[in-house]
Amino acid sequence: MDTAPVLSTIAVLGGTGKEGKGLAYRWAKAGYRILIGSRNPEKARAAALEVLGLLGDKVFVEGTTNTRAAELAEIVVLAVPYAAHRETLESVSEALQGKLLVDVTVPLVPPKVTKVQMPPAGSAAQEAHAILGQNVQVTSAFQNISHELLFHPEPIECDVLVTGTSKEARQETLKLVVAAGLTGWDAGPIENSVVIEGLTSVLININRESGSTNAGIKITGTHSGSTHYIAL
Ligand SMILES: NC(=O)c1ccc[n+]([C@@H]2O[C@H](COP(=O)([O-])OP(=O)(O)OC[C@H]3O[C@@H](n4cnc5c(N)ncnc54)[C@H](OP(=O)(O)O)[C@@H]3O)[C@@H](O)[C@H]2O)c1
């Protein structure tokens, strides 16, 4: 008899927000156990109910504090505005030791969000690694996917570039890309995240110029993607 694979528990810190909730929805749909994290557990529970309202009670989605979500999960995803990046990471640093952090943060500096403005560490993902230390693997992904594409079941045409502190961490993150219904590419070491985070400002500029809201990227000229969508 076939048994369903036991998938990891993913904490989505800032999962009450636009991008995090969309990712939580897609991973819950793929069978992962999802903990939506927030500064306010009531707000997290409301976001979890919203996702459950779309997917039904066969999926696992719970809301709790960022800290508790980080403690209980194997993989932790960070989806907060850059202004809250350091503070949120410092608050969960202990819980993250020995785990994988997938950083979705783009270091936008409002109001000039169409201009690339990287932090001194080089990128938000490198800054996360410096804050968390060598015992935490950090990958960077999903910065070029608009939240508007995530929070519904339609297929998404855009690709996801994944950088990270080790090949293993990138492979683990590419599995999450596939589970979210996207094609992912191993884009190399964490130092390359500057390009991908910076690309978001370019896409925002393209959106403004073209009157669209969800411009994305697609890799062409290759024989096959690093990952392919498979329904779990
Ligand atoms: N929106 C997109 O389409 C998109 C696309 C790609 C990448 N991103 C990146 O993903 C990240 C999240 O974007 P988003 O649009 O989802 O943001 P958001 O909806 O504005 O915020 C996400 C969550 O972050 C927490 N937060 C907000 N301000 C905070 C603060 N000052 N201190 C601590 N926590 C705070 C809130 O959670 P609680 O109040 O529940 O704690 C909020 O629900 C950003 O770095 C963004 O650049 C976004």
Provide a descriptive summary of the structure in words.
By secondary structure, this protein is of the alpha/beta class. The two termini are 17 Å apart. The C terminus is likely disordered. Bound molecules: NADP nicotinamide-adenine-dinucleotide phosphate (NAP). The site of NADP nicotinamide-adenine-dinucleotide phosphate has 25 residues, from helix 1. NADP nicotinamide-adenine-dinucleotide phosphate binds next to helix 1.
Read across the widest sheet, the strand sequence of neighbours is 3-2-1-4-5-6-7-8
Number of strands: 8
Strand content: 15-25%
Give the ligands present.
Answer: NADP nicotinamide-adenine-dinucleotide phosphate
Task: Describe the protein's topology.
Elements: E1 9-13, H1 18-29, E2 33-38, H2 41-55, E3 60-65, H3 66-72, E4 75-78, H4 85-96, E5 100-103, H5 124-132, E6 137-140, E7 159-164, H6 167-179, E8 183-189, H7 193-210
Parallel strand pairs: 1-2, 1-4, 2-3, 4-5, 5-6, 7-8
Antiparallel strand pairs: 6-7
Bound molecules: NADP nicotinamide-adenine-dinucleotide phosphate.
NADP nicotinamide-adenine-dinucleotide phosphate binds next to α1.
Main features:
8-stranded mixed β-sheet; disordered C terminus; alpha/beta; 8 strands; binds NADP nicotinamide-adenine-dinucleotide phosphate; 37% helix; 232 residues; single chain
What's the short version?
The protein has helices at residues 18-29, 41-55, 66-72, 85-96, 124-132, 167-179, 193-210; strands at residues 9-13, 33-38, 60-65, 75-78, 100-103, 137-140, 159-164, 183-189. By secondary structure, it is an alpha/beta fold. NADP nicotinamide-adenine-dinucleotide phosphate (NAP) is lined by residues 14, 16-20, 38-40, 43, 79-84, 88, 104-106, 108, 143, 145-147.
